[in-house]
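[Structure tokenization] protein backbone as discrete codes

[Encoding] learned vocabulary of local backbone shapes

[Begin record] amino acids and matching fold tokens:

___
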Amino acid sequence: MTSSADATDAPSPSPSPSPAEYRDVRAELEGLTTEAFRPEHSDIDRLPTLDIAQIMNGEDATVPTAVAAQLPNIAAAIDAIAERMGRGGRLVYAGAGTAGRLGVLDASECPPTFNTDPAEVVGLIAGGPAAMTTSAEGAEDSAELAVADLSALDLTADDTVVGVSASGRTPYAIGAVEHARTLGALTVGLSCNADSALAAAAEHGIEVVVGPELLTGSTRLKAGTAQKLVLNMLSTITMIRLGKTYGNLMVDVRASNEKLRARSRRIVALATGASDEEIEAALAATDGEVKNAILTILGAVDAPTAAHLLTKSNGHLREALTAVPHV
């Protein structure tokens, strides 16, 4: 889900810096690992295409190792997020440019994958939905815009805000985290530079240092890949903790097209080993709810009983199964 204050209502981005301020920003950027120049690649445009592809592939191969170094911090953030969401809180991503788009992407994939309400996982991008396809890079300089966007969501202490910024210095992401903390919300700062302002502003700092990019400062490359991997973990493992899966099966999948309807039947088959006829009957009785259908088969209960047991277990299928006396 994307959200942003309307352009007519949102605060305007900060005025353009003076030449002296530009020098200060330039000096700040030059100190960032993600902005570092790679002289060994200064002639890359002269290389054969295959050579460039091999170099780029080699660069990408270093990203998982950088993510692995942050796994303890990622896990701690996930446990805190799941605890808040278990109380009815929301997960909100806030970023600009590539970082914002990745947050919106992750949020938009949660409803079809985990049958979440679109309001449960929200992606905010500086500049609003139009910034998904049209650059609105100036919007990233406004912390006030982030406050306006979060205010439109009526943020509460049960919510989580994840600021996403490769540099770790983006005012929009930092402003979102700082505002969220004033409201008692959980905050996470995801960046790709060590000792970042974003991580310092958040309760949980995740700094995946992937090093300089192949193209100087193009953080949609390794930094973007790292952010995608971490966002995958934040949402997926949180949903596992919330009972949205049964083992590694997506039992809360929303069957909104033919492919997903076929996947639903396959999931029920993998979970139960039931015949096609049993599966069709179970899905028909439960209005296509995969988790409920599995419980009717494995627990040998009717659809209303399955629904009741799942409600009592807060949607955790394993817990619901243990509540069936003869299972």
